[in-house]
Design brief:
The protein is of the alpha/beta class. The protein has a single domain, classed as 3-Layer(aba) Sandwich (Rossmann fold). It contains ten helices and seven strands. Strands 3-2-1-4-5-7-6 form a seven-stranded mixed sheet. The longest helix is centred in the N-terminal third of the chain and has 14 residues. The chain is globular. The site of S-adenosylmethionine (SAM) has 22 residues, from helix 2, helix 4, helix 5 and strand 4.
Length: 209
């Protein structure tokens, strides 16, 4: 089986078995970065960090990396000079990998279908590669925005294949009316899995009031 077929079957497993996702990500943690970046041309982290950095200029900002995985985003933000990065993920094994990067001030096991528990709100949040076909889904975006200070922004990517197949446009229709404490400010197309020809969407959200 070719490397990309193996990864496709891992991804398919993850997407087809939302109930077992945590175990599937645990199992994948040690080779995850290499598989995704080298074999599938995953650039969602590069694209999202580029836009995040242009919007969040304070390098001391308290940042939540939601669904941090093995720490690709934390590493990039640390390289860019950010010093106050906190990560969460529901896979303990992914968190172990993220810990080894040295990029995070704290790491917490957390399921993003539930509200984020934190002793203080974050200035900004970023969630890359987490939102796709199943859960977490559009209705869970507020779990991220509600962890922010008023006017804080969240950058969230959505897999472009899922965007079409799971009809994210309809899911987000009426978002600003349904959640008066959050605002969907912008949706842009980004490169995502370049070796697979899959693009992504990058959502910019804001915490209101
Ligand atoms: C494709 S990886 C992306 C990781 C990292 N953000 C990156 O860009 O490299 C998706 C991550 O989301 C996590 N995840 C998926 N569903 C989750 C949920 N409901 N709550 C918390 N983490 C979740 C997985 O454990 C995995 O680490």
């Amino acid at each position: 089986m070719a490397a990309s077929d193996k990864i496709d079957s891992r991804l398919k497993n993850v997407y087809d078995n939302p109930g077992d996702k945590q175990a599937l990500f645990d199992d994948w943690a040690s080779t995850y970065d290499r598989d995704l970046v080298d074999d599938l041309g995953y650039v969602a982290d590069v694209e999202a960090c580029r836009i995040f950095i242009s919007l969040v200029t304070d390098r001391q900002a308290r940042i939540l990396d939601a669904g941090c995985g093995a720490g690709l985003v934390g590493r990039r933000l640390k390289q860019a000079g950010y010093t106050n990065i906190h990560g969460n993920d529901y896979s303990e094994k992914m968190l172990d990998q993220a810990r080894s990067t040295g990029a995070y001030r704290s790491l917490q096991q957390h399921d993003l279908t539930l509200p984020v528990a934190s002793d203080q709100p974050y200035d900004a949040a970023i969630a890359v590669g987490v939102f796709a076909f199943s859960v977490p889904s559009a209705e869970h975006l507020v779990n991220i925005t509600r962890s922010l200070k008023p006017d804080g922004i969240a950058i969230v990517t959505v897999n472009g294949k899922a965007w079409k197949e799971a009809d994210w446009e309809s899911k987000l229709d009426g978002f600003n009316q349904d959640y008066p404490d959050a605002r969907l400010v912008d949706v842009q197309t980004i490169d995502y899995l370049t070796a697979e020809g899959i693009d992504g969407r990058l959502l910019t959200l804001e915490r209101i009031g």
